[in-house]
Every structure is written in C-alpha cells, then in structure tokens.
Design brief:
Blueprint: E1 4-6, E2 13-17, H1 22-34, E3 38-42, H2 48-59, E4 63-66, E5 72-75, E6 89-90, H3 95-106, E7 111-115, H4 126-134, E8 138-143, E9 149-156, E10 165-167, H5 173-184, E11 188-194, H6 201-208, E12 213-217, E13 223-229, E14 237-239, H7 244-256, E15 261-268, H8 275-282, E16 286-295, E17 298-306, H9 327-336, E18 340-342, H10 356-366, E19 370-374, E20 377-381, H11 403-414, E21 420-422, H12 435-443
Parallel strand pairs: 2-15, 3-14, 6-7, 10-11
Antiparallel strand pairs: 1-21, 3-5, 4-5, 7-9, 8-9, 11-13, 12-13, 15-17, 16-17, 18-20, 19-20
Helix pairs in contact: 1-2, 1-6, 2-3, 3-4, 3-5, 4-5, 7-9, 7-11, 9-10, 9-11
This protein binds shikimate-3-phosphate (S3P).
C-alpha cells in the first residue's frame, strides 16, 4: 500500500496536458493487432490497463512495440489470425481489456484463460458471456456473488462463429464492443441494437480501419449498428486525444480551489463522453472550450477552467452513460457546492472497479461531507464553498483498488482544512500514471504558465 495525505495547496494555474484516452488506447492496440500492415499510434495512454491489452495481443501473436519517440507500432495478424496464447491472459484491473478481448477470442479457434486482480475478479462477466455464447463460444467462468459469473474464466472461441442480432440489456460500451469485435471474424452481419447510446469509439475506429459498419438511428434515439464480417482491416496512423475522464479531476480541482485559472489542453470531447462538463456548467462552473478541432476522428478542445461558486442540481439520469466514469469526481464537486445535488439511475456504478456508490458514500463522509446513499444514487448536501473538514488523524479513505476513488479523494483533499488521507495511491497508475506528478507540478508552480 502507498498511502498519501492530499492537502490544500495554492490556486491551480498555468497549462497542463493529460495523457491519452484509455478507451481509444485499448481499441487502437486491439484493432492494430487484427489489421494487416503497420499501425502507428501516438499519444497512447501508457497506463497499466492499456499495458494489459498490449501484453494479451502479443500473447496472441501481434507485434506491439514502443519506439523511443513515444509512438507505439503494431503489426497485426489479420482478422482470423489470432494465435493460441500459451499462458493465462492477465488482465490486471482492466474490465475493458477483459470484455473486449473475450469478444475477439469468441470468433477465433483458440482457447484462452482470463485472470485479474481482486477487484476485476468480482466484476460480472455474464453480460458478455450471454451474447458471445449465442455466437457459439463456450465458457467456464468462476462462480461469483449473487449467482454472477466472474474471473478466472476459461473460454473457447467458435470458428466459424454465428452472426447474431443482439439488443443490449444494459447500457454498456464494453458489451457492445465485445459483440462487434466478435463479429469481425464472423461470416454475415452482426447487429447490435443500442436503446441508450454509449461511447462510440469502437464504431468510429472500426470504420477508420476499413470495416464495413453502418449505424442507423431510430426516432427514439435507438441505434442499430451492423458490422459486415468477415472484415479485412488495414493498419493506419492514430493520434489519441487526451482522456476527458482524466481531465475531469483537474477540471473539478480548478473549480473548487479558490483563485484557480487553468487550461487543460487537448481534451477529447466526444459527445458520448463529455456530459460531466455540461453538468458542471449547469452547476455554475466556468468551463470554456478553446480551439475546438478534430484529432484522430474525435472532437477535441482545450478547456479553460476558473474557480467558480457551484450550486447543487438534480442530475438527469439520461446523461449517465455519457459520464459513467465521472460520478466519483462529480460527487466531490457536489460536496463543495451550495445546496443539494441528487443523482439517480446509477446502478451500474455498483459494478465498476469498486461499488462506487457505497465507497464514495463512506469516503466523502469520512472527509466530512454530508451524503445519503440510495439504491441508485447519492444525495449530497454541499458546504457552499467552505472547505471540507478532511479525514481525522489516523483514518484513511479505503480506495478498494479503484483508481478513480483515489484521484477523486485526492482532489477533495485540495479543498479541505486538514487534508484527506488516501490509503493507497498505487491504483492511480491503471489510468493516469502521471496524476500525482501533474498535481505536484501545479503545487510548485512548474506547470507551463
Ligand atoms: C468503457 C466503457 C465503460 C467505462 C469503462 C470503459 C469502454 O464501461 O466505464 O471505463 O472503453 O468501453 P461499461 O461498458 O461497463 O459501461
């Protein structure tokens, strides 16, 4: 364990840049590994989750190499060409690696065993096992709590797999992507029906690599995604935009620390990801987009954020999928806002890297915030801008191997009287290895002004 007390520091000023998007980084390696020819990726997130994906793709035959200039170069095996891995695939903490790779394996004639850390080994895999079984894959999962199916898990892919039409029972980009990736090596058309839109990086990138994929939108917002197999993918250049989910921590930090005036450069603003910034604006946050542009087929801007007096709101549950990873840090903003913030429709947060409703409830209460937990959300009565008391001497926030809990409470510490003690900062490396050095650079005034 690597504990740390995060304390109030001066205003956050200057310019920073956050690392590449985690979702896009995973997908660049996976599709590069299935493409013919060379894929060159700049701005790849070098976090532990993405390195788990890189390791697995190497174990199945692709060449994935980091060059000295920071680019990652991938030589793929071609769709249908994945090789039998010789050892279990260690997915570490990464749900995205696990579920998307299960999709890839499902339509190849190989057997693979997936293992992960204590957090990942509790997470439900039934949501991907169900559609991939319909396509012909066979699974031997471990029994989890409440009848769930979990890692360690062995699976055998089907070749040829059967194309399916699958209506997503949960709003999950991981399940959607698993089925589409399985469809790549499946003859015929694989169809995913998505009643509630989720992040669409897979669709954008599959098209970019040359797959034939069509998206039809119905009047009620339902999306019907059709992928034509067997696809042929061609290697390409990819520039990964900055991760809005990582930028979120510094956006909220600048909003709640008095005197802050910060520019965060190169933040991905795909509409299926960016709802947090709209919610914070509706709470009174000054967040301005500068130089909106396109990077690697994704909308991007620099965000100019200034300290703001925030007011609590009721968050519309319809926006949940487009900020599903940002609720822990939104709860911190709410704890500093004036009045009550109410969130609902957050059942999915209970099956992330930790039960983020229960864990954030306990964490914020320990830091002195007023929080009520409901079945599907939190209700938070904010301080109106007054700093939180902070965690008492000798007590620490339990992060439960969840990077976003650790970073959220680190930010809460910046707006506290006595500081917030986090029990373990190591999980931060799963998605944002330079989080602490960026924060320390801002504290010492070494961020670019
Ligand atoms: C992700 C999808 C989301 C998100 C996760 C990354 C992806 O998960 O929470 O961090 O890259 O597809 P769900 O599909 O479970 O909502």
């Amino acid at each position: 364990m690597r504990p740390r007390r995060f304390r109030a520091m001066g205003p956050l000023t200057g310019r920073i840049r956050v690392p590449g998007d985690k979702s896009i980084s995973h997908r660049s390696i996976m599709l590069g590994a299935l493409a013919l020819g060379e894929t060159r990726v700049s701005g790849l997130l070098e976090g532990e989750d993405v390195l788990s994906t890189a390791g697995a793709m190497r174990a199945m035959g692709a060449s994935v190499v980091r060059e000295d200039n920071g680019d990652w170069v991938i030589h793929g095996v071609g769709v249908g060409g994945l090789l039998q891995p010789q050892a279990a695939l260690d997915m570490g903490n990464s749900g995205t690696s696990t579920r998307l790779l299960m999709g890839l394996v499902a339509s190849h004639a190989i057997t693979a065993t997936f293992v992960g850390d204590a957090s990942l080994s509790k997470r439900p895999m039934g949501r991907v096992i169900e559609p991939l079984s319909l396509m012909g894959a066979e699974f031997t999962p471990s029994p989890g709590a409440n009848g769930s199916q979990t890692l360690p898990l062995m699976m055998r892919g089907a070749a040829p797999a059967v194309p399916i039409t699958y209506r997503l029972p949960v709003a999950s980009a991981q399940v959607k992507s698993a089925v589409l990736l399985a469809g790549l090596n499946t003859p015929g058309i694989t169809t995913v029906i998505e009643p509630i839109p989720t992040r669409d990086h897979s669709e954008r990138m599959l098209k970019g690599f040359g797959a034939r994929l069509e998206v039809e939108r119905e009047a009620d917002g339902t999306r019907i995604i059709r992928l034509h197999g067997e696809a042929e993918l061609t290697g390409r250049r990819i520039t990964v935009p900055g991760d809005p989910s990582s930028a979120a921590f510094f956006v909220v930090a600048a909003l709640i620390v008095p005197g802050s005036d910060l520019v965060i450069e190169n933040v991905g603003l795909n509409p299926t990801r960016a709802a947090l910034f709209d919610v914070l604006r509706a709470m009174g946050g000054h967040i301005e987009e500068l130089d909106r542009r396109e990077v690697g087929g994704e909308p991007v801007a620099d965000l100019h954020v200034r300290h703001s007096a925030l007011t609590g709101i009721a968050v519309d549950p319809a926006v949940v999928p487009s900020m599903v990873d940002e609720f822990p840090i939104l709860f911190v903003a709410a704890a500093l806002a004036k009045g009550r913030t109410v969130t609902t429709g957050l059942e999915e947060l209970r099956v992330k890297e930790s039960d983020r409703l229960a864990v954030m409830h306990a964490a914020l209460e320990l830091a002195g915030a007023r929080v009520t937990e409901t079945e599907d959300g939190l209700m938070i009565d904010g301080t109106g801008g007054e700093p939180l008391p902070g965690t008492p001497e000798g007590a620490a926030i339990a992060t439960h191997l969840d990077h976003r809990i650790a970073m959220s409470l680190a930010v809460a510490g910046l707006a506290s009287k006595g500081g917030v003690e986090v029990d373990d900062t190591r999980p931060i490396a799963t998605s944002f290895p330079v989080f602490e050095s960026l924060l320390d650079g801002l504290a010492s005034g070494t961020a670019r002004a």
